[in-house]
């Protein structure tokens, strides 16, 4: 009998945690409301700020990038963190996690994190994501300004049911009236450039032909990429290939980046921002970072590291109003 993926992940996680191969960081969570993301009928979106001071012990992305000749942890991964092999990818446990069962889908051969996802990457990600309970979320930090921590191509998957939270952006998605699978949307209440597409749940839930799933996911992804580039051009913004990508059981979302870090110079704060922030989930490692985020308009923060949308940009695609 084939072991369920969820059971396999749990068993590997528990063993790795007990033998010290994996480090779980205790956290506290704050909820922050923002008037700037009000959707409909007084619906108010909430951002989740996770406070994890123990993460200061983890090497940051700058340390990883600056360590000349440092070992690639994905080239020959620790067997204790290896969950299973996929066709062209490996499924690994993340060594440093603030959410239990944090997963990585990593290419077996070295591919650059600066490259867009390929249909085969999306297929491997969906093979894992579709077997996890909802809500779960996959994300990819593409490019030098995206908040990526490793140069080896990897997609991260967070089973948010374990953290007992849902990605806040999903609540905004649920309030798009009359949304249609395959239509690309821009949400008016989000003032930074972004594109979002609902997935065809009937097709995804009924087919067992993974070649067809791979082709479909590739079409949706590259349709989003084309639409994002179009919005950047309409906005007279520099087209870079740094972006954040989010995949859930229901939709894909893509956000271009112009800065990796959000900084408050007078406080000496410099936060690396990745896809999780655009899902509404932020991370603070110090008490000062936590208090600063609580006092900050998060929408402005996202506009600063993303690309603020000008008047009329995105008007060629449907929106939430």
TrEMBL record:
<dbReference type="GO" id="GO:0009117">
    <property type="term" value="P:nucleotide metabolic process"/>
</dbReference>
<feature type="domain" description="ATP adenylyltransferase C-terminal">
    <location>
        <begin position="189"/>
        <end position="307"/>
    </location>
</feature>
<feature type="active site" description="Nucleophile">
    <location>
        <position position="154"/>
    </location>
</feature>
<dbReference type="InterPro" id="IPR036265">
    <property type="entry name" value="HIT-like_sf"/>
</dbReference>
<dbReference type="Pfam" id="PF19327">
    <property type="entry name" value="Ap4A_phos_N"/>
</dbReference>
<dbReference type="InterPro" id="IPR045759">
    <property type="entry name" value="Ap4A_phos1/2_N"/>
</dbReference>
<dbReference type="GO" id="GO:0005524">
    <property type="term" value="F:ATP binding"/>
</dbReference>
<dbReference type="InterPro" id="IPR019200">
    <property type="entry name" value="ATP_adenylylTrfase_C"/>
</dbReference>
<dbReference type="InterPro" id="IPR043171">
    <property type="entry name" value="Ap4A_phos1/2-like"/>
</dbReference>
<feature type="domain" description="Ap4A phosphorylase 1/2 N-terminal">
    <location>
        <begin position="4"/>
        <end position="171"/>
    </location>
</feature>
<protein>
    <recommendedName>
        <fullName>ATP adenylyltransferase</fullName>
    </recommendedName>
</protein>
<dbReference type="InterPro" id="IPR009163">
    <property type="entry name" value="Ap4A_phos1/2"/>
</dbReference>
<dbReference type="GO" id="GO:0003877">
    <property type="term" value="F:ATP:ADP adenylyltransferase activity"/>
</dbReference>
<dbReference type="Pfam" id="PF09830">
    <property type="entry name" value="ATP_transf"/>
</dbReference>
């Amino acid at each position: 009998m084939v072991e369920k993926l969820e059971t396999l992940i749990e068993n590997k996680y528990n063993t790795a945690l007990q033998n010290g191969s994996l480090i779980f960081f205790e956290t506290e969570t704050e909820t922050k409301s923002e008037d700037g993301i009000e959707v409909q009928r007084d619906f108010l979106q909430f951002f989740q700020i996770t406070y994890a001071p123990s993460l200061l012990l983890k090497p940051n992305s700058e340390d990883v990038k600056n360590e000349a000749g440092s070992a690639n942890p994905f080239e020959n991964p620790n067997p204790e963190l290896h969950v299973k092999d996929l066709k062209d990818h490996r499924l690994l446990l993340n060594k440093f996690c603030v959410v239990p069962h944090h997963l990585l889908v990593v290419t077996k051969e070295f591919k650059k994190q600066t490259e867009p996802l390929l249909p085969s990457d999306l297929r491997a990600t969906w093979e894992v994501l579709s077997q996890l309970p909802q809500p779960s979320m996959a994300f990819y930090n593409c490019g030098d300004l995206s908040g990526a921590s490793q140069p080896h191509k990897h997609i991260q998957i967070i089973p948010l049911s374990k953290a007992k939270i849902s990605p806040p952006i999903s609540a905004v998605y649920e309030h798009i009236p009359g949304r249609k699978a395959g239509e690309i949307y821009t949400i008016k209440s989000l003032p930074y450039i972004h594109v979002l597409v609902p997935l065809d749940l009937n097709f995804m839930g009924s087919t067992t032909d993974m070649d067809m799933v791979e082709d479909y996911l590739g079409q949706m992804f590259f349709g989003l990429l084309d639409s994002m580039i179009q919005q950047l051009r309409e906005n007279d913004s520099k087209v870079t290939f740094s972006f954040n990508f989010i995949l859930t059981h229901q939709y894909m979302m893509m956000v271009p980046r112009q800065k990796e870090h959000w900084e408050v110079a007078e406080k000496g704060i410099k936060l690396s921002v990745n896809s999780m922030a655009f899902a509404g989930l932020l991370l603070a490692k110090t008490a000062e970072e936590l208090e600063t985020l609580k006092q900050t308009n998060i929408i402005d923060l996202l506009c600063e590291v993303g690309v603020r949308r000008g008047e009329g940009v995105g008007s060629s695609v449907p929106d939430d109003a």
